[in-house]
Design brief:
By secondary structure, the protein is α/β, with parallel strands linked by helices. It folds into 3 domains: 67 residues; 201 residues, Vaccinia Virus protein VP39 (Rossmann fold, 3-Layer(aba) Sandwich); 109 residues, Rossmann fold. The strands form 4 sheets. A 7-stranded mixed sheet has the order 8-7-6-9-10-13-12, with helices on both faces. Strands 1, 2, 3, 4, 5 and 11 form a 6-stranded antiparallel sheet that branches. A 6-stranded mixed sheet has the order 16-17-15-14-19-21, covered by helices on one side. Bound molecules: zinc ion.
Length: 400
């Protein structure tokens, strides 16, 4: 059954409550309703906006929560996942960060566990005191994960050394409740380790799109200081992910530990990042040089079959740039077995059946598009293709 898509428009900033007069409404964006192939999918039009008061970006026009819930309840949401690969290479930096800051017996909470990969991997690395929160059904029930939302009620006061989350905070509508819960659960020396998608990642499931400067504000507003920010040099939004480590300041402590509340960015820097981020959300997705290369690649292989490797957000962005796909011979493959046989809806509305990438065994491919942004993913795919004895004559990867 096709999900009925009902749109909604926000009257107030979801973070600070400012009214529409404080919004900077950005151009509409076409995105897949579900990020990845499924039985039914649709193209939706989202409109991002910035709030001038608090500088957060959010989905101004978005799909009604009931429509999203219906999709999730039908178990159709197959997101980019650790199970795309055996090694979980995209999770490595995040898990390594936890390992850098936490001892093996430290009590650690993860929320937004999705398929439980982080918890599983931490257990594998010898961590023994873990607790996860995940409302979805996708994880192995033998893992120490509660199938519920992350709330203060689910935590023990001051009991945890770290609260960690990857790629989840931006989908939570109530950031104030989140930060309050984190303060409640963390011990005085506790830390937050959060990984975020860049501001450019706009999706229907997200409430927010974050800039590094907004995260600084979020932490400051709730008594936390960023003690480490891992992002490339400015402009930060070109990074797919950024990682923030934050700690309670004296404001939240009963006994001060000489940790005054201290912003990471100056007001001037925040404003600059705010302006850069707006430009980035308005600008075409890719730099001119990348667009030229991408169009050149498709033009060159007009007569060939082009293998599109990857059927998530990256393929959507890349194919959005191409536009009408009807004159190309495309073959969509993906390493995620759960996507095999499912239908991928391209940005131009055309539908394509996804085939598991093992179909490339002992083949010669004239043209292959690496539909991934993360270089680690690309390296992993290359190694897999080699294993399959698949020869690639020509390829496109966004990173060259
Ligand atoms: Zn606001």
């Amino acid at each position: 059954m096709k999900p009925e898509i009902v749109y909604t428009v926000k009257e107030h900033c979801p973070y600070c409550g400012a009214g529409k007069e404080d919004f900077i409404v950005l151009p509409p964006r076409r995105e897949g309703l579900i990020d990845g192939p499924t039985e039914d999918n649709a193209i939706v039009t989202l409109i991002p906006a910035f709030c001038k008061k608090c500088q957060v970006a959010f989905n101004y026009q978005t799909v009604k929560q009931e429509s999203i819930d219906e999709i999730l309840a039908q178990g159709k949401y197959i997101t980019t996942s650790s199970t795309n690969s055996n090694s979980g290479i995209a999770y490595e930096p995040f898990i390594n960060k936890i390992e850098e800051y936490c001892k093996k017996d430290d009590p650690i909470v993860e929320f937004g566990c999705y398929d439980g990969f982080v918890i599983k991997e931490l257990l594998h690395r010898g961590y023994s005191n873990l607790l996860g929160f995940e409302p979805g059904p996708y994880f192995d029930k033998s893992l120490p994960i509660k199938q519920t939302f992350f709330t203060q009620e689910g935590l023990e006061k001051g009991a945890y050394k770290a609260i960690v989350s990857r790629n989840c905070v931006q989908i939570l509508p109530d950031l104030h409740a989140l930060m309050k819960a984190c303060n409640y659960g963390l011990c005085d020396d506790g830390i937050l380790i959060f990984q975020f998608m860049s501001v450019l990642a706009v999706h229907v499931l997200q409430e927010y799109m974050f800039t590094v400067s907004f995260i600084d504000k979020l932490m400051q507003d709730h008594g936390f200081n960023i003690i480490k920010l891992e992002a490339p040099v400015r402009p930060y939004h070109y990074n797919q992910y950024f990682t923030v480590i934050a700690q309670k300041s004296d404001e939240l402590l009963e006994k001060p530990l000489n940790r005054p509340l201290k912003p990471y960015f100056s007001e001037k820097e925040r404003l600059e990042i705010f302006n850069e981020a707006q430009e980035a959300l308005i600008a075409p997705t890719f730099a001119d040089s990348v667009r030229e290369r991408l169009h050149g690649f498709f033009a060159k292989h007009q007569q060939d079959e082009i293998v599109i490797y990857g059927t998530g957000g990256a393929s959507f962005s890349l194919l959005k740039e191409i536009g009408d796909l009807s004159s190309y011979k495309l073959k969509f493959v993906d390493g995620d077995k759960r996507r095999d046989g499912k239908v991928y809806i391209a940005p131009d509305g055309s539908k394509h059946q996804v085939i598991h990438s093992s179909c490339l065994k002992d083949t010669q491919v004239k043209a292959l598009l690496f539909a991934v942004f993360d270089r680690n993913f690309k390296i992993e795919i290359e190694a897999y293709l080699k294993e399959l004895n698949c020869q690639i004559a020509d390829y496109f990867y966004i990173g060259g």
